[in-house]
Amino acid sequence: MNWNNITLTIVFLSLAGPGIVGNILVFVRYVHNSALGTEKKPLDLILIHLAFSNLIIICSTGIRDLATVFSFRNFLGDIGCKAAVYLARMARGLSICTTCLLSVLQAVTISPRTTIWTKLKPQTSFQVLPFLLLFWIVNVLISSNLLSYIKAGSGLNRSVVATYIGHCYMLQSRHIIKWFFLSLMTLRDVIFQSLMGWSSGSMALHLYKHHKRVLYLHSSRSANNSPPEIRATWSVLILMACFLFFYWVDFIISFYTGFTVAHDSILLNIKTFLELGYASFSPYVLISRDVHVPNVLRAH
Predict the structure, then answer these.
(1) Strand 162-164 to 150-152 pairing
(2) pLDDT tens column, 248-271
(3) G-protein coupled receptors family 1 profile domain: which residues (predicted)?
(4) What's the pLDDT tens digit per position in 121-174?
(5) pLDDT of residue 109
């Protein structure tokens, strides 16, 4: 095992292990809420879906990385490579859409009741299901081109130009197909990130107004004990900041490697960190801001 594989193993284990544990805790906590709670909250279903999407990202990326680290030539094969890369890309899209939905829902929740946005707030988890179903349809279709252009390294002709993505290779597609799916991905990301930007700005403005009101209160108890909706808003804003950081750095590196067909081990390790980063860190943002998560362990 060379130094590059050792570095990749360290990066993977340091993110995948805690990430799986954290997402399982969030998943179990909100499934527990939905199963035993009398009121099915939309937020619970969104967080369950986000944790599930993160687990798909970690597991599918992890299988590919393990095959790379231990040089298992026939471990995945073409079908395994297609499944691992496709699931990782699709789940990443689901994570983008779900994070956006979470942000918009929180912005609508804390908006003044007199505004028109409160009419758009879903009252039950069943009203969120059509959005989640739409996310699955959109991302399944947008990622479908990968099924034709992903190949395992063991069965690849060395004369073929392809992009190395960790044990697997992505063949060069025709420009019209490449730009069509790239345009769809860009359109999806622009729409959902624009909604994130609007909702984040709305929440930041609300927190600023709340902070100004708190300054009038001289009681430290009132200042320190923020209402639950304020704590939830801070959690969503921190998630937005984490998401935007990992997304844009990964986008820049992917753009560079995709158009230069570069095979740089350092860039691949950085991409692995970025691919797993948000999926691994986001559950701990929710756990750190939610004092009720440990109650799940006591309940069991």
Answers:
(1) unpaired
(2) 888 888 777 666 655 566 777 787
(3) 22-286
(4) 777 778 889 999 999 999 999 988 888 878 776 655 555 556 666 667 777 767
(5) 79
Q: Which CATH number fits the domain that encloses residue 13? A: 1.20.1070.10
Evaluated on CA atoms 277, 278, 284, 288, the torsion sign reads: positive
Nearest-angstrom CA–CA distance, 278 and 274:
7
Residue 105 belongs to what domain range? 3-153+160-218+226-289
List, for residues 25-66, the tens digit of each pLDDT value. Answer: 999 988 888 777 656 678 889 999 999 999 999 998 877 766
Give domain status of residue 61, yes or no. yes
* Edge-to-edge strand ranges of the sheet holding 150-152: 150-152, 168-171, 162-164
Cα–Cα separations (whole angstroms), residue 118 to 41, 106, 130, 204, 230: 15, 11, 19, 18, 17
Looking up tokens 């193993």 gives 9
Q: Is residue 297 part of a domain?
A: no
Is there a domain that residue 17 lies in? yes
Q: What radius of gyration, in Å, describes the C-alpha atoms of the chain?
A: 21
Let me know if 183 is exposed, middle or buried by CB neighbors in 10 A (0-12, 13-18, 19+): exposed
The reply to whether 136 falls in a domain is: yes
Task: Name the domain count of the chain.
Answer: 1
